[in-house]
Amino acid sequence: MSIGSAILCFIVAQRFAELALAARNTRQLRRLGAVEIDTGGYPWFIALHASWLASLALILPGARVWSWALLGLFAALQLGRLWVIGTLGRRWTTRIIVLPGEMLVARGPYRYVRHPNYLVVAAEIAALPLAFGAVALAGIFSAANLALIARRIAIEDRALATAQPALDPR
Protein backbone atom coordinates (compact mmCIF):
# COMPACT_ATOMS: atom_id res chain seq x y z
CA MET A 1 0.00 0.00 0.00
CA SER A 2 1.38 3.39 -0.98
CA ILE A 3 1.72 6.23 1.50
CA GLY A 4 -1.02 8.08 -0.39
CA SER A 5 -3.40 5.12 -0.12
CA ALA A 6 -2.65 4.75 3.59
CA ILE A 7 -3.35 8.43 4.21
CA LEU A 8 -6.55 8.27 2.20
CA CYS A 9 -7.77 5.25 4.19
CA PHE A 10 -6.96 7.09 7.41
CA ILE A 11 -8.88 10.21 6.32
CA VAL A 12 -11.93 8.25 5.18
CA ALA A 13 -12.05 6.27 8.44
CA GLN A 14 -11.55 9.45 10.45
CA ARG A 15 -14.33 11.28 8.63
CA PHE A 16 -16.81 8.43 9.09
CA ALA A 17 -15.96 8.26 12.81
CA GLU A 18 -16.43 12.04 13.08
CA LEU A 19 -19.77 11.90 11.26
CA ALA A 20 -20.96 9.19 13.68
CA LEU A 21 -19.84 11.27 16.68
CA ALA A 22 -21.42 14.40 15.23
CA ALA A 23 -24.71 12.58 14.60
CA ARG A 24 -24.77 11.28 18.18
CA ASN A 25 -24.00 14.72 19.59
CA THR A 26 -26.62 16.32 17.32
CA ARG A 27 -29.30 13.88 18.54
CA GLN A 28 -28.37 14.57 22.17
CA LEU A 29 -28.37 18.33 21.67
CA ARG A 30 -31.75 18.24 19.93
CA ARG A 31 -33.18 16.24 22.85
CA LEU A 32 -31.99 19.08 25.09
CA GLY A 33 -33.81 21.65 22.95
CA ALA A 34 -31.04 22.71 20.59
CA VAL A 35 -31.97 24.14 17.22
CA GLU A 36 -30.17 23.63 13.93
CA ILE A 37 -29.44 26.74 11.94
CA ASP A 38 -28.95 26.72 8.15
CA THR A 39 -30.02 23.16 7.33
CA GLY A 40 -29.88 24.12 3.65
CA GLY A 41 -26.18 24.93 3.78
CA TYR A 42 -25.11 21.60 5.26
CA PRO A 43 -25.44 19.52 2.06
CA TRP A 44 -22.97 21.86 0.35
CA PHE A 45 -20.33 20.97 2.95
CA ILE A 46 -21.05 17.26 2.49
CA ALA A 47 -20.70 17.67 -1.30
CA LEU A 48 -17.46 19.64 -0.94
CA HIS A 49 -15.82 17.15 1.39
CA ALA A 50 -17.03 14.11 -0.58
CA SER A 51 -15.67 15.68 -3.78
CA TRP A 52 -12.39 16.52 -2.07
CA LEU A 53 -12.03 12.92 -0.89
CA ALA A 54 -12.94 11.56 -4.33
CA SER A 55 -10.36 13.85 -5.91
CA LEU A 56 -7.75 12.68 -3.43
CA ALA A 57 -8.65 9.08 -4.24
CA LEU A 58 -7.69 9.79 -7.85
CA ILE A 59 -4.28 11.26 -7.08
CA LEU A 60 -2.98 9.88 -3.77
CA PRO A 61 -2.66 6.15 -4.50
CA GLY A 62 -0.44 6.75 -7.53
CA ALA A 63 1.56 9.63 -6.09
CA ARG A 64 5.29 8.99 -6.25
CA VAL A 65 6.52 12.27 -4.77
CA TRP A 66 5.40 13.92 -1.57
CA SER A 67 6.49 16.57 0.87
CA TRP A 68 7.33 15.30 4.33
CA ALA A 69 7.00 18.84 5.68
CA LEU A 70 3.43 19.20 4.40
CA LEU A 71 2.55 15.71 5.60
CA GLY A 72 3.92 16.74 9.00
CA LEU A 73 1.71 19.82 8.88
CA PHE A 74 -1.27 17.61 8.04
CA ALA A 75 -0.45 15.37 11.02
CA ALA A 76 -0.22 18.41 13.30
CA LEU A 77 -3.59 19.57 12.01
CA GLN A 78 -5.06 16.26 13.18
CA LEU A 79 -3.94 17.15 16.70
CA GLY A 80 -5.66 20.51 16.28
CA ARG A 81 -8.82 18.71 15.15
CA LEU A 82 -8.73 16.50 18.27
CA TRP A 83 -8.19 19.57 20.44
CA VAL A 84 -11.29 21.23 18.99
CA ILE A 85 -13.43 18.10 19.34
CA GLY A 86 -12.19 17.48 22.87
CA THR A 87 -12.80 21.07 23.90
CA LEU A 88 -16.37 21.13 22.62
CA GLY A 89 -17.15 17.61 23.85
CA ARG A 90 -20.86 16.84 23.48
CA ARG A 91 -21.36 20.19 21.74
CA TRP A 92 -19.16 19.30 18.76
CA THR A 93 -21.10 18.63 15.57
CA THR A 94 -20.63 19.14 11.86
CA ARG A 95 -23.74 21.32 11.78
CA ILE A 96 -24.63 24.69 13.28
CA ILE A 97 -26.50 23.65 16.43
CA VAL A 98 -27.43 26.23 19.04
CA LEU A 99 -28.50 25.21 22.53
CA PRO A 100 -30.39 28.13 24.09
CA GLY A 101 -29.01 29.27 27.42
CA GLU A 102 -25.58 27.70 26.95
CA MET A 103 -22.49 29.83 27.36
CA LEU A 104 -20.01 30.18 24.54
CA VAL A 105 -16.88 28.08 24.86
CA ALA A 106 -13.78 30.18 25.58
CA ARG A 107 -11.23 27.52 26.54
CA GLY A 108 -8.85 25.37 24.54
CA PRO A 109 -8.33 26.67 21.00
CA TYR A 110 -11.37 28.94 21.39
CA ARG A 111 -9.26 31.00 23.74
CA TYR A 112 -7.16 32.05 20.75
CA VAL A 113 -9.36 31.69 17.66
CA ARG A 114 -13.12 32.16 17.31
CA HIS A 115 -13.58 29.33 14.77
CA PRO A 116 -10.60 26.95 15.16
CA ASN A 117 -12.30 23.99 13.47
CA TYR A 118 -12.77 25.98 10.26
CA LEU A 119 -9.13 27.00 10.38
CA VAL A 120 -8.02 23.37 10.74
CA VAL A 121 -10.27 22.21 7.90
CA ALA A 122 -9.15 25.02 5.60
CA ALA A 123 -5.52 24.16 6.23
CA GLU A 124 -6.15 20.43 5.66
CA ILE A 125 -7.97 21.03 2.39
CA ALA A 126 -4.92 22.91 1.10
CA ALA A 127 -2.05 21.03 2.77
CA LEU A 128 -2.83 17.47 1.79
CA PRO A 129 -3.14 17.97 -1.97
CA LEU A 130 -0.09 20.26 -1.87
CA ALA A 131 1.87 17.53 -0.08
CA PHE A 132 1.40 15.39 -3.18
CA GLY A 133 1.98 18.17 -5.71
CA ALA A 134 -1.70 18.70 -6.60
CA VAL A 135 -1.60 22.49 -6.63
CA ALA A 136 -4.74 22.92 -8.76
CA LEU A 137 -6.72 20.60 -6.50
CA ALA A 138 -5.60 22.54 -3.43
CA GLY A 139 -6.58 25.84 -5.05
CA ILE A 140 -9.98 24.74 -6.33
CA PHE A 141 -11.11 23.14 -3.08
CA SER A 142 -9.62 25.90 -0.93
CA ALA A 143 -11.57 28.52 -2.89
CA ALA A 144 -14.82 26.54 -2.66
CA ASN A 145 -14.26 25.90 1.04
CA LEU A 146 -13.52 29.57 1.68
CA ALA A 147 -16.81 30.58 0.06
CA LEU A 148 -18.78 28.06 2.14
CA ILE A 149 -16.99 28.88 5.38
CA ALA A 150 -17.37 32.65 4.94
CA ARG A 151 -21.12 32.19 4.52
CA ARG A 152 -21.32 29.73 7.41
CA ILE A 153 -19.33 31.88 9.82
CA ALA A 154 -21.63 34.83 9.17
CA ILE A 155 -24.68 32.67 9.87
CA GLU A 156 -23.09 31.02 12.89
CA ASP A 157 -21.97 34.32 14.40
CA ARG A 158 -25.50 35.71 14.11
CA ALA A 159 -26.92 32.58 15.76
CA LEU A 160 -24.33 32.61 18.54
CA ALA A 161 -24.82 36.32 19.22
CA THR A 162 -27.81 35.32 21.34
CA ALA A 163 -25.70 32.93 23.45
CA GLN A 164 -24.41 33.97 26.82
CA PRO A 165 -20.81 35.12 26.93
CA ALA A 166 -18.34 32.61 28.31
CA LEU A 167 -17.48 33.01 31.94
CA ASP A 168 -15.08 30.11 32.38
CA PRO A 169 -12.02 30.52 30.13
CA ARG A 170 -10.37 27.27 31.35
Characterization of this structure:
This protein has 170 residues and is mainly alpha-helical. The protein has 5 helices and 2 strands. A two-stranded antiparallel ribbon has the order 1-2. Helix 2 runs antiparallel to helix 5. The longest helix has 29 residues, at 3-31. The model has no long low-confidence stretch (mean pLDDT 92).
In short:
With 170 residues, the protein is mainly alpha-helical. The chain is built from 5 helices and 2 strands; from the N terminus they run αβααβαα.
Q: Major beta sheet, specifics?
A: 2 strands, antiparallel
Uncertain runs are none
Q: What is the distance, rounded to the nearest whole angstrom, between the alpha carbons of the first and last residues?
A: 43 Å
The structural class is: mainly alpha
How much of the polypeptide forms β-strand, as a percent range?
under 5%
Considering DSSP H and I runs of 4 or more, what fraction of the residues is helical? 55-70%
